[in-house]
What we know:
Layout: E1 4-9, H1 16-25, E2 29-34, H2 36-42, E3 53-56, E4 59-62, H3 64-74, H4 82-107, H5 111-138, H6 152-161, H7 164-168, H8 170-178, H9 180-190, H10 193-201
Parallel strand pairs: 1-2
Antiparallel strand pairs: 1-3, 3-4
Helix pairs in contact: 1-3, 1-6, 1-10, 4-5, 4-6, 5-8, 6-9
Glutathione binds near residues 13 and 52.
Amino acid sequence: MSKYSLTYFDIQGRAEPIxxxxxxxxxxxxxxxxxxxxxxxxxADTPQGSLPVCSIDGEVFWQSTAILRNIAREFDLYxxxxxxxxxxxxxxxxxxxxxxxxxxxxMQHDPEKKEELxxxxxxxxxxxxxxFNKLLTENKNGGWLVGPQLTVADIxxxxxxxxxxxxxxxxxxxxxxxxxxxxxxxxxIEAEPAIKKWVEKRPKAIF
Length: 207
Ligand SMILES: N[C@@H](CCC(=O)N[C@@H](CS)C(=O)NCC(=O)O)C(=O)O
């Protein structure tokens, strides 16, 4: 087994799909969580001045979605056909846009601006909800988003919605909460034994 060491902040953020994919694959990994103070000292030594970075057998990789795709290919979580892989990529791109919007809300401290951004984010949630519902409805192959087995698309979807209500409130999460197909899918992913175990033991980081 390769040795993985993932460095990120003590939040879910861009690293959580990577952590869950590794946990699901059954590959032990070092889950290195650093403080902002430590980050100040190490930023200049990282490849592009950002986290996450992941060392795989001593070789360093960065850009969260490149790391996620590396793991998806390694552990057969990327779909089989070109079409399936492209659909997984579409889901990953949805996650990136969704995360960027959510981070804007999370990091805004001015109450009025936060309210405005939160409203915009709530409107943005509708699009991936529609996409995921469509994929689940059209894919008859065992109830996963893409193809006949769990892929990183399901993991990414889980990271987007599982804690959305707790983090941003019911108004933002409304489109998701109203979609019973998607709510049931998130529960199904969480019921996967390796994912359940990871969620129970992971640090209770917000965001
Ligand atoms: N496109 C990059 C973005 C990385 C990024 O912006 N990371 C943030 C944390 S989510 C970061 O390192 N912030 C600290 C900094 O920029 O100094 C990726 O997906 O890895």
